[in-house]
Design brief:
The protein is of the alpha/beta class.
């Protein structure tokens, strides 16, 4: 039985624009500074942002980001002598991503202010002389993100089959699962096939509330509503489901698509679009907005023809974007004459062509159990190729451990001995 999504409290109205779901980490040394930052945290403009308070100041941040991915916004307090601070900030810059913004809080002496201003040349977004209050911190953060339209935190990858029966949905669903499980990435897998979608079926979530239910009620669709109806499937994987019927229109409404794509603009997650293979104007517009496109086909002559036609169209509507990636699915099928991966690369003029071998038993077990292939055998050739594909697509958001499950388990056990 389906249930309505639970009510969700909306952010408190604020005169400042609602900032995206930035990841914020604060390395502050003094209780009064920590209190000021926590008061700033409660500002309505920061309702989406995720905050983490840590110890260690500037030196602690340098140690932390040698092994961790730096956040979107870093708030650091230090009472080190001026020239020492510049040296430490130079060292920190080597450990942080280029798009990490830094808000620095430090020495309040008037003669040090000009010296600290020099740190702005190192990429620091702003310098606030101590002591600070919540109002100054709020102002500094909103100034750093004054043009919210320029902040895109996530990515959108669209999976589409070059014709029906290519297995594009299976590839998309397993790639999304690999990103969430093995790469520490927040993933939203969206089923955009209102007629034949399989995400709910393959994740054993057919009783969940769906986008189709929302459309039947004629409810207005926005980002907040999309967030409310997402179905958790893993710790970092959420599903946007449809209730497929043959008499449904082949495309979802424009407002639903726009709200979904906007989530990649405002939240640090990878949005995976499991596309319908029905071609039309709506499909072209969605593919035009995606950061990456993965085209799945079969290793046959007809598959080569179909994918070449599709790639040519995509190159016309996306002339300045990266070429689509091509996946040859179900290779190595017994007694079938196949077009090789090398022949596909040469014919299409593409460097990136992935291959997913045929394993009927593994796919059948996964579909019967309503889960992904890597649940059963992460080290199989099929799983390894799917993980390689997912890692290539997810390269900008990959925070995980690339080792196979056996090596990760052995590493954990060694810590206990």
């Amino acid at each position: 039985m389906k249930h309505d999504p639970p009510p969700t409290e909306l952010p408190v109205a604020t005169k400042r624009p609602l900032l995206p779901a930035l990841q914020v980490e604060a390395f502050v040394e003094y209780p009064q500074t920590r209190l000021a930052v926590r008061r700033a945290q409660r500002n309505g403009a920061f309702a989406r942002m995720r905050w983490r308070f840590r110890e260690g100041g500037l030196a602690g941040a340098i140690r932390a980001f040698k092994d961790e991915r730096s956040p979107d916004l870093l708030i650091i307090e230090s009472d080190e002598e001026g020239r020492r601070v510049v040296a430490l900030l130079e060292e920190l810059a080597k450990e942080c991503r280029e798009d990490t913004k830094v808000l620095f809080i430090g020495g309040g002496a008037e003669h040090e202010v000009e010296l600290f201003r020099k740190v702005l040349k190192l990429g620091v977004s702003d310098f606030l002389p101590a002591p600070v209050d919540a109002a100054k911190i709020i102002s500094a953060i909103t100034d750093a993100y004054h043009d919210v339209s320029d902040v895109k935190l996530g990515r959108v990858t669209a999976f589409i089959g070059a014709g029906g029966g290519t297995g594009s949905s299976s590839v998309a669903q397993n790639a999304a699962l690999a990103m969430a499980r093995l790469m520490g990435t927040e993933v939203l897998l969206a089923d955009l096939d209102p007629q034949f979608g399989t995400v709910a079926l393959n994740f054993n979530a057919e009783d969940a509330y769906t986008l189709t239910d929302v459309l039947r009620r004629r409810s207005p669709i926005d980002e907040l509503l999309i967030e409310r109806i997402l179905k958790p499937a893993e710790e970092r994987l959420k599903l946007l489901l449809v209730d497929p019927t043959i008499d449904s229109l082949p495309n979802l409404p424009v407002q639903a698509i726009n709200a979904l794509l906007d989530l990649a603009q405002s939240t640090p997650r990878h949005v995976i679009l499991d596309m319908t293979h029905v071609w039309g104007l709506r499909t072209k517009k969605i593919l035009g907005r995606a950061d990456e496109i993965v085209v799945t086909t079969m290793p046959t002559l007809a598959g080569l023809r179909n994918v070449r036609n599709l790639v040519e169209v995509l190159q016309r509507i996306r002339p300045t974007d990266r070429n689509p990636m091509v996946v040859l699915n179900k290779t190595g099928l017994p007694r079938r004459v196949e077009v090789s991966t090398a022949e596909f690369r040469e014919a299409l003029g593409l460097e990136t062509v992935f291959e997913i071998p045929y394993d009927s038993r593994l796919f059948s077990i996964a579909q019967t159990e309503g889960t992904g292939i890597i649940h059963f055998n992460e080290t199989s050739r099929v799983s390894k190729n799917l993980i390689d594909l997912a890692r290539h697509i997810n390269r900008d958001l990959d925070n995980g451990d690339p080792r196979p499950s056996s090596e990760r388990l052995f590493s954990r056990l060694r810590k206990w001995w």
